[in-house]
Amino acid sequence: MSVKDLILNSKKTAFSFEILPPLKGNGIEAIYNTIDELREFDPKYIDITTHRSQLVYRTLENGLFQCDRVRQRPGTVAVAAAIKNKYNIDVVPHILCSGFSKEETEYVLIDLDFLGIYDLLLLRGDKAKHENTFMPSEEGYAHASELQLQINRFNEGFFLDGTKQKQPRTRCFTYGVAGYPEKHDEAPNVDSDIYWLKKKVENGADYIVTQMFFDNEKYFSFVDRCHKEGITVPIVPGLKPITTLKQLTVLPKTFHLDLPEDLAIELRKCKTDEEARAVGIEWCTMQSKELMEKGVPSIHFYSMSTAKSIKEIAKRVY
Fold first, then answer.
1. Sheet order of strands, 14-19 included
2. Alpha-carbon gap, residue 38 to 29, rounded angstroms
3. Nearest-CA neighbor of 225 among 264, 261, 269, 181?
4. DSSP 8-state assignment for residue 301
5. DSSP per residue, 98-151
6. Fewer CB within 10 A of the terminal residue: the chain, N end or C end?
């Protein structure tokens, strides 16, 4: 059953969350702990992020610098398989343009096909830390819409080199894409952003999951605009509870979003991260209840360092 079916067939607002693969050298126990914290709320699926390699400079004994390309969080496919095997919960690995070639993407698709994992989230991904603007990898893609076409072609039974798969496909990959209630930071305007989002739906996207937001009115406005443009697939709101004081400034800068002034005022009153976490729980609970009252099909939580907060919120609303 695809993510879209899991969402639409849920008897109540579906619950899902996102996790990060562990840093290289660490085990998977922390991920299992997060899932154990949240599985009582019947997650319909779990997203697993993918991370590109970054340039890392280290000093040699002779005083010179050496530049190495390092992927700090490998293992997305393996983590997805481990979760599916251990918990029998649907998993959704992210597939990126950023940092990956077409051939690398094909190898990932082949591995996932062997493992029986067919739900994906397709993203362009962020620019590398050393880049001023996003640059596609050599033999890679600049846009998620291009990535869609490769996966569609794979679903039709063809590899990149044009050769045909020897066995007929028994199941095809289905996928979601990202939407931005406050506009992607590189889009010239909201209308352009919606135009390209519609193209991704026309290319075959089953659903849309939004970037995090803290003002529900921006989500509702985004959904209305999408509907006016003929976008009818489920649009899943993505939420993240604030957990630290520094997120008051870090989140708007990193994710190019606004915090409502009411939330900013409450956070400015906080003296400790624990006080900020309590504010974050209250605010995200309020968001969740309002979204559920308005009949959203699902809520997706970004759970990096927030599992305990999400558990508290889910207790109040699910």
1. 235-236, 207-210, 174-179, 119-123, 91-96, 43-48, 14-19, 298-302, 238-239
2. 14
3. 181
4. E
5. TT-BHHHHHHHHHHHHHHT--EEEEE--PPPTT-SS--PPTTB-SSHHHHHHHH
6. N
CA of residue 180 relative to chain centroid, distance:
12
For 150-159, letters b (16+ CB in 10 Å) and e give: bbeebbeeee
Strands (E), 192-245: 207-210, 235-236, 238-239
Q: Which residue, 23, 4, 24, 22, is CA-closest to 14?
A: 4
Dig out the tokens for 169 from the structure.
């496909």
Q: pLDDT at position 28, please?
A: 94
Q: Name residue 317's amino acid.
A: V
Length, in residues, of the chain: 318
pLDDT at 128: 59
Token pair recorded at residue 158: 């063809």
